[in-house]
Amino acid sequence: MLIRLLALIHKEFLALLKDPRSRMVLIVPPMIQLLVFGYAATFDLKDISYALYNEDRGTASRELVAAFDGAPAFHRVSTLHAEGEIAPLVDKRAVLVVLHIGPRFSADLQSRGSAPVQVIVDGRNSNTAMIALNYVRAIVDDFNRAWIAAHGLPAPPARLETRAWFNPNLESRWFFIPGIIGMLTLVTTMLVTALTVAREREQGTFDQLLVTPLRPGEILLGKALPGFIIGMVQGTAILLIATLWFKVPLLGSLSALYAGLALFLLSGVGAGLLISSLAVTQQQGLLGAFLFMVPAVILSGFATPIANMPTVVQTITLIDPLRYFLVILRKVFLEGAGFDVLTGQLWPMAVIGLVSLSLASWLFRHRLY
Amino acid sequence: MSVARKRPLRGGGLMRLKGLVHKEFLQIVRDPSSIAIAFVMPIFLLVLFGYGVSLDADHVPVALVAEAPSPDTADFFASLESSHYFAPLHARTLAAAEQALREGRVNAIVHLRANFAEQLRRSDGAPIQVIVNGVDANTARLTQGYIEGAWGNWLARRATGQGQALATPVQLEQRVWFNSELRSRNYLVPGLVAIIMTLIGTLLTALVMAREWERGTLEALLVTPASMTEILLGKIIAYFVLGTGGMLLTVGLAVGLFGVPLRGAFWLLWVCASLFLLAALGMGLAISAVARNQFVAGQVAIIGTFLPAFLLSGFIFDIDSMPAVVQGITHVIVARYFVSIVQTLFLAGDVWSVVLPNALALLLMAAIFLGITWRKSRKRLE
After folding, report:
1. What's the whole-model pTM score?
2. A229, A126: one domain
């Protein structure tokens, strides 16, 4: 029986790796994608292009402008001389932020102690707009603190002292790179599993497989193991890139991380084989792969937090294995978590994996087409 | 094979094309998965994501700790409790609050020390300790901003209560254009339209050519008077009609169901979406023609479409903040141009200086992909 199984696994590996283009597709893109996506996925703005419209000639406005020009994230691309120049510049996305200082700014600041400054932000991408506004606010706050100290004004009765745990500089890359590891692993399991049974069904070789002495459980194992092994090897490689190249701190227990990876692969392979055994043609298998993969990624909490979703959608995310794996990745990487904190994330993936694998193996014989 | 190019009658071209388009439609109708890609997938994905995807945090769980509760601490906490941005949770000790933060039950802690009331009346002021969970840096920043807002309101309220003016020298007046309430759904839904259409366009055609090569039906077609150009044209027309149906559906849902304002002209959106659809269909056909085998074509489609469109199109992540090399790579992502167009057409209006260059880029991409398909398909004949 073991020999039979080994032969089957050997055949499955051959089917995957025999075609040089297929081999390429499995090995090269995930590495490149981690590098490219790792640099692309960040909410930290590095180059905010802004325009200045300063109607004031006083020293105070010059100091404020100097604060913006000195900030590394801001980059002045144009200086305006009329209000009418603002709209065309923002419309064509030449600038993200416009800083408008009125003619009485310095005078008001000296005589009345306060003066308004107008900030216009392009809200087409509201998240970028919000982050840019936060940056502007931080510069103005610093300016205000310095102004209060220099002019002997009364300090506010209470001040905020903020610290961030686990990610002291609030680098969003540390949050996204563990997420990308999860996404790429999911894509690989889909690649290896979603089309296999469908291809054999389409070519008629699956019927041949079914009349051999192999039992459905053995066929299942033969189909599942290559995905599992390739996923493990690739997962290890991208973990290495994340820690050695991107220097994301890996603080927690490596064994808990691998337990999470193994169970996630189990559930991913299960979902892929279930899709594949439901499909009669490869076109249907491909459609199924996307109908699973796209929601699994978008609703996993990768970029938009699950807590922001309505309750119904939050309930749907409970069957998304990526949701649990992302929590494990982030907690192990950044919070230094071990098994004790993660059991609540591990068992749902095991359940999803076992249910989908048993359904797939049942469908091998019972799917009519 | 030279028969393929020697057409007996030039005038029969249109009729042959009609026949080819008819054949494609028959194939589409017989395999329900194409219909599902064009009509079921957009509805399913857009409804799910339109409701599910949001970057606006509401009711952020925050632990409030006062070591010595007093009217002053209660007064400060009231400013957090009255805001819909927070779901406050009172903790007795800092240790209990830290445990809650570690377990993920709260996103932040606001901690007032025992001498808060006393320090409040001294000249250097009282410190308010805030701890945020920094793992999700974006949510952490948002939470921090909300707490600062509540703090500012409290300071202003307290100053007016004591009959003083608040010392804030420079006061920011912020104007957010095109999306004044900063509703993230308004920019995410148009972006999703672009992502979903990338998938529809590519998936419809990714396996089509490969399937015909694999089954040998393309050779059968080539011995008829139909030329390769006509065969390709037949496929493009059929799937273009199908894809346009899917596009109208997604745009209709975005405006009708999610209330995203469409400030630009509908006809312009239609033209740009058609160009984009052509480029996406071309990408699918090119994958199919290069791979020549359904399994590999399917794998390339899985790797090459969704994640690049999701991460590199400017849909979520700002392209200007990426390193120059990565910014260069985004130029080969078809969705990038369309995301820029839809965000502008939906929220800002007909800004030609944004729409025109991006539309030209789409046209160029469509031409490149269809050119690759044409060349790769012809090469097989020789």
Report:
1. 0.86
2. no
